[in-house]
Structure formats: C-alpha cells, structure tokens
Amino acid sequence: MNSLSEVIAVLPAAGIGSRMQTACPKQYLMLRGKTILEHAIEILLYHPIVQRIIVVLNRQDDRFHSLPIAGNAKISVVHGGDQRADSVMAALRHVEKNAKKSMWVLVHDAARPCLHGDDLDLLLNIIGHSKIGGILATPVRDTMKRAIAPVAARATIAHTVERQQLWHALTPQFFPFELLKTCLSRAIDEKAEITDEAAALEYCGYYPQLINGRSDNIKVTYPEDLALAEFYLTYRDHQE
Q1: Which helix (DSSP H) or strand (DSSP E) does residue 39 occupy?
Q2: C-alpha 178: how far from its chain's center?
C-alpha cells in the first residue's frame, strides 16, 4: 500500500430506509448494543490507513450527535442531498479545498455493519497497482431470472440470465478523489441513473476492479436482515 496516499472515508447516511418498515431510520436500529451506523463507522475509524471519516446526514437528523462515536476527532458531518450521488458529492466538496492529488476515497454504506477487516485490507491494497480503483463484490451464486414486470408488481419470468460474469456489488467502493469527483459531477449534471459510485465511473468510461469479498458483508434493507447481521457478528466474535 502506498503510504503517501491519504485515504478518507465517506458514509452516506441521509436515507430513511422505508423498506425496513420502522419509524426509526435503519442506520439507527440497534444491533448488539450499538446502532448499525456505529458498526459501519467503527471498522473504518480504527483502521490505521483511514485518516478521516465524513458522515453525510439528512438535515432533519437529530440522532447522530447523541451517539458516543459522534465526538471522535476523525469524524466530520455534512448534510446530504436527495440522491446518494448528491450526498457523496457533498462530502467530496467538503474536503475539496484541502484535498491532495494522492487522496483516495472509500465510500461505505451506512447500513452495512458486517464489513470484515480482511476485506477492507484487500480493497485498500489496490492503491499500489490501480489508477482507477475498485469495489468489494461477490460472484452471483444463484440462478438469475429477468422479470417481465417490475419487482413490486406480480412478476413473471422473461428469461434466465447467464450468471457466470455477474457479481453482487458491495461496499466499500474505493477510488482516487479527483476521478470520483469528476465522474460523479458529470453523472449528476447529465442526470444519469446511477446507484453506486462505480456506476458513475462506468458512465464515464472507466472500469474499476472487482475485489472478491465475503458474502456476510450484507446491507440491512429488510426486517429479516437485522437478525442475519446479528448472527454474523455473533458468530465472528466466537470465531475470533
């Protein structure tokens, strides 16, 4: 790993998590005595390579500042936008004035509490041999079907999708600061439909690496995911 590169982390946490069907935004749901957001932050906070963490919050957020972790000197808070891309751009603009040419940005989902340190190290190590960056991902294991109707409707099968080259995109996603800022800015300006940072790079003709990560690095999206995340963290504690 290039020790001359500065690494900052960005956690977009401005969403409300409507699919969890709870009054509380999902990043603030409790998991083994801490919020999901605290779990997501801490794995980055205590990594020696990550120098700074920017948490992007909704303007109406009244929960974060009451968390014990909120007072850590490495953590800054900015307000996000309507979409994920807007929130990440807000974080990049927050550090733009003091950004070095060698700066890299690690973007991690606020609702992904099970990131393992080994996966984080694997991703960070691409600094030494990539100018574009990469993402944690897992190869698709299941048979994939394309539907005729949208997921929310009563879907029927259109056809089976060849899975050999399909991967599940995870986070963190890790890119040079200037490249990510340029690609995100263009994607936002041109109203491109992007759901993660890698998609912004793809939109601009760059193709990040896929770093094979652990399948237990789940995103808490639906109510049943919370119990699964608790199982993974408990099992990991017993193994270590």
Answers
A1: helix 36-45
A2: 18
